[in-house]
Amino acid sequence: MNHPKHIVAVSGLVNHPNGQVLLIRSPHRGWEFPGGQVEEGEDLIEALQREIKEESGVDASIGSLVGVYSNIRSPSKVMFGFLGKYVSGELTTSDESIETRWIERDSILNKVTNPIVRDRIKDMLDFNGQIIYRVYTTDPYKIYQQFYI
C-alpha cells in the first residue's frame, strides 16, 4: 500500500452554549479537540463535522478558521483549525476517544499535555480574528516560523 506524501487534516474547538468546550481523550495523545484526516471527496467542513460526530457523538456547526498548521516532517501534514458550535447530540466515545467531556474554558490548558495540541488549543481559545500560520516538526517539537495572516 502506498502511503500519502501529504496529509490534509482538520480539527475544531466546539463551544457549548453553556460556555464549556468539548475535549476528547485520545488513546495516543491524551486530551485534545476532535479532528482527523480529510477523506477523498470531502471538503474541510464536511470532514470536520464527520470527525466530531465519530469521536464524540456531537453534531456541530463550523465557523471561523483559526489556523493553518504545517508539520513538515515526512509525511508532511497540513492541518486546518476551526471554531465550532454545539448543535445537538449526546457525548459518546469511540476507538479514537476513550473519554469525552465538556470542560470549562479556564481548565482546558491544565488537561492538555501534548505541546503541539496545547499550542493549537491556545490559538483557538485566544482567537481574535487573525488566522495563524505555523510551521513545525515533531520529535522534538520545534517551531520554524509562525505569523498571522
Helical stretch tally: 3
Round the Cα radius of gyration to an integer and report it: 15 Å
Assembly status = single chain
- Got a strand count? 9
Low-confidence stretches: none
Helix content: 10-25%
β-strand percent reads 35-45%
The largest sheet is: 6 strands, mixed
The CATH topology name reads Nucleoside Triphosphate Pyrophosphohydrolase
* Strand order in the sheet with the most strands: 4-1-6-5-8-9
Structural class: alpha+beta
Second CATH tier, the architecture: Alpha-Beta Complex
Mean pLDDT: 95
Order of helices and strands: EEEEHEEEHHEE
List keywords for this structure.
single chain, 149 residues, alpha+beta, Nucleoside Triphosphate Pyrophosphohydrolase, 6-stranded mixed β-sheet, 3-stranded antiparallel β-sheet, 9 strands, 44% strand
Question: Could you characterize the architecture of this molecule?
Answer:
This protein is α+β, with helices and mostly antiparallel strands and 149 residues long. The chain has a single domain, classed as Alpha-Beta Complex (Nucleoside Triphosphate Pyrophosphohydrolase), CATH 3.90.79. The strands form 2 sheets. The protein has a 6-stranded mixed sheet with strand order 4-1-6-5-8-9, with helices on both faces. A 3-stranded antiparallel sheet has the order 3-2-7. The longest helix is centred in the middle third of the chain and has 13 residues. The N and C termini lie far apart (37 Å). The model has no long low-confidence stretch (mean pLDDT 95).
